[in-house]
Each structure stands twice: as C-alpha cells, then as structure tokens.
Specification:
It is built from 3 helices and 8 strands. Strand 6 and strand 7 (74-78) form a beta hairpin. The chain is an alpha+beta fold. It folds into 2 domains: 4-83, F0F1 ATP synthase delta/epsilon subunit, N-terminal (ATP Synthase, domain 1); 89-138, Up-down Bundle (Single alpha-helices involved in coiled-coils or other helix-helix interfaces), CATH 1.20.5. Strands 1, 2, 3, 4, 5, 6, 7 and 8 form an 8-stranded mixed sheet that branches. Bound molecules: adenosine-5'-triphosphate. The site of adenosine-5'-triphosphate (ATP) has 14 residues, from helix 1 and helix 3.
C-alpha cells in the first residue's frame, strides 16, 4: 500500500520521520484527516494531539501548534514543540496549567502592573491542558 512520509520537526529535533498509512492533525479549523493522494494543502495547527496510523497501530504525538503542509505524499509538520505521550512530564504540565490559570484570574489592574500577556497565558493554558489530557489518555 502507498504510504505517506510524516515528518514532525521542531527547532530542537526531528520528532518523527516515518512512512505511515494516514495522519490526523489538530488543524485550527477542526481535525483534518490525511491519506495518500491527498490534495496539496497548508494549514495552521492548534496545540493538541496528532494521530497517525502505522504498522504498529494508531500512535499519537503532542504538537504545540505550528503548520502542517501536505505536498505529494509527504506531510511536514513544523511546530515549536512535540512529544510522544511517554515523553510528557505530567507534573510540569500541571504546573504550567496552574501558572496560566493564576495569570488569567488576575484583575485588570494586576494585569497592567505585572505586564501579563493574556493571549500568551491563554495559549500556555491550551498547551498544558492538551498535554495533561494526552498523558492521562495514554497512561490508563
Ligand atoms: P513550560 O511553561 O512548562 O515550559 P510550555 O508550554 O511553555 O511549558 P513549550 O514552549 O511548549 O513549553 O516547550 C518548551 C520545551 O519544553 C519543548 O522542548 C517541549 O517539548 C518541552 N516541554 C514543555 N512542557 C513539557 C512537558 N509537560 N513534558 C515534556 N516536555 C515538555
């Protein structure tokens, strides 16, 4: 069966470079399934779970947003961070969630005084929640 080459790249490393059967990415406008012979496409990603089917079954990688490009039978994902479920540090994600929630609970005056970037806190919360969810789904 024709396969898809899936490459997930961060500034630090190549998280994955494998031939797979299909990919599902957390596109910003909804989950997007990619099979061989898919039309070329570029989409932005939300922080969340990327799933792919390969000989070993269905596997997942956390991606922290970024872009996915489909060109021919190659899917390239450029993201600032990516982790397999077993690489996710749950305590770290919980600490990030707590920090983000505290920032988002601040009053307007506090936000101004502490120069809190609300959009950044919201994005951080989204990453933390996605990591926690993925970690718990894959550790049970
Ligand atoms: P933190 O505030 O804990 O740094 P973050 O969401 O801001 O979380 P990112 O900017 O997404 O972190 O990632 C920075 C680096 O740290 C990346 O290499 C990423 O893979 C790694 N990383 C971040 N959080 C975790 C985690 N909970 N488990 C494993 N690796 C993580």
């Amino acid at each position: 069966m024709a396969g898809l080459t899936l490459r997930i790249i961060t500034p630090d490393r190549v998280v994955l470079d494998e031939v797979v059967d299909s990919v599902r990415v957390p596109a910003s406008d909804g989950s997007m399934g990619i099979f061989p012979k898919h039309a070329g496409a570029v989409t932005t990603l939300d922080a969340g779970e990327l799933r792919y089917a390969a000989a070993g079954g269905e596997l997942s990688i956390f991606v922290s947003g970024g872009f996915a490009e489909v060109r021919g039978d190659t899917v390239r994902v450029l993201t600032s961070a990516g982790e397999a479920p077993t690489e996710i540090d749950e305590e770290r994600a919980k600490a990030a969630e707590k920090r983000a929630r505290e920032r988002l609970a601040m009053t307007r005056e506090d936000v101004k005084r502490d120069a809190v970037d609300t959009a950044r806190a919201r994005a951080s919360l989204q990453r933390a929640m996605a990591r926690i969810q993925m970690h718990s789904r894959h550790s049970s």
